[in-house]
Amino acid sequence: MTHETDPALIPLPVRTECRADAPGYVALDERTTLDAGPGTHGTARWLRTALGAATGLPLADGTGPHAIRLRIAADVERELGPEGYRLSTDGSVAEAAVVIEGGSAAGVFWGAQTLRQLLGPEAHRRARVVPAGHDWDLPMVTITDAPRFRWRGLMLDVARHFMPKDDVLRQLDLMAAHKLNVLHLHLTDDQGWRIEIRRHPRLTEVGSWRARSKWGHRASPLWHETPHGGHYTQDDIREIVAYAADRHISVVPEIDVPGHSQAAIAAYPELGNTDVIDTTALSVWDTWGVSPNVLAPTDTVLRFYEGVLEEVLDLFPAEVSPFVHIGGDECPKDQWKASPTAQARIRELGVGDEDGLQAWFVRHFARWLADRGRRLVGWDEILEGGPGPGDGGGVGGGATGTGGAGAAARVLPEGAVVSSWRGYAGGITAAEAGHDVVMCPEQHVYLDHRQAPGEDEPMPIGYVRTLADVYRFEPVPPGLAPEAAAHVLGTQANVWTEVMENRDRVDYQTHPRLAAFAEVAWSRLPAPDHRDLAGFERRMTAHYPRLDALGVAYRPPAGPRPWQRRPGVLGRPLEGPPPNV
Ligand code: ACM
Fold this sequence. Notes:
There is one protein chain. The chain is an alpha/beta fold. 33% of the residues lie in helices and 17% in strands. The longest helix is centred in the middle third of the chain and has 18 residues, at 354-371. The chain binds acetamide (ACM). The site of acetamide has 4 residues, from loops.
């Protein structure tokens, strides 16, 4: 289609066809009705709420030539899968103004997102900005579309800086607008515990706030002396999960063990290595980095976290998401090395060393979750430590202390999923061993990393990852055998919030790169070197006004606005291209 008539959709659909014999427009107006077939009432409700508010149109129930017809269609499911859809505004499919047929309710919903983009940026506002009587013109097109990956994720770190519930709901709307479908909520860390657990109230009474915060990278001399805190009540979580489900997004909770646990230990000192340090003196951590204060490998800790997870499973039902993330990353072993209790446990279990102890810890929860019909997800460190006794194989790091990721991958309980963050390597190992993988390498899709080289980038962290760099990210590493590649469930962009103190900072780091990421996750793009970057950038000129209408404080292409800068606050930029891992 020509540039002028290009509806500039993001993410790019599989196919957009204009009907040559029927140029022109279809208008939505006062006569437009919603004709919602079985299973599509959720999308009808969304259209009435979102488009109804932006257009002022009543969108009453009704059939006929002015209808937006929503259907779940078996042939679409066969051809395009459950999340696929066909959207037609050119009258070629049926007697209706607009027809959206999805492979499932989710497909219909993604089609509705495309419909909103076709209506223009004003359709993304929460109330009317155009006079009554405005024609909401749609180009006459047939769009055929389906996602490349089933896991199109965004991880929000609500632990380092708490994100109020309303802002999480807003993020879900922004995800839906980009056809992303997994929100990974990083709920616990050294710097805060963000989810109410009824049987352990001190987790939030004590663990959900800190007296002050490091301002900038941890090497910065500056402090924010205002206390920081907040948590989600169980009803907040239920609301978030339901709001997400209404948008065909599943929420994956992360409760990080055995590292990144200082907030929990501050609340319940018995969870820490009490034979090494005085854990009663710990408070919620006020600076960034990897805390040495990790959980003790005791039965007390296992029972405590089983109790936590029982409540978590209740809040995140299996129908919504079978996946539960237990972290497993960056667990320093110094305290276990010094702890007679931990050393006795290593001997008693016959796991060889501290890496083996960590693997045992992860396996315990993998089995515990599997017994309850759930699938454990962990950062790629869960591949380390080797198989335990009785796990088969008899090779690997358990005995030698070398890590033994390959052997460990074979004994990760079936169904466990790896979030590959330190590069592709962990994901490749896991996929080749038959485990599902979510590719989220920090070198490519950590959105806390700076997005331009200039001095003006606020608190610049990591390598430069521009919009174009993210657009060229490929989730499936070249050379991966097809049967291993089939284990790549998808990909995820991770937003760590040490230097993002509020919603605008999160917006700045996340957008516009999330648009490029969404296209990588949804669209069937060619290999990185063959991607149409110019075409994407042209479509982005139509996408910025959508983001403006949605109220997103993105990074403008020309660089940060004055109030988006953080002059004098230290970051930690890394130079050069990221290592090719
Ligand atoms: C991580 O970035 N530590 C998963």
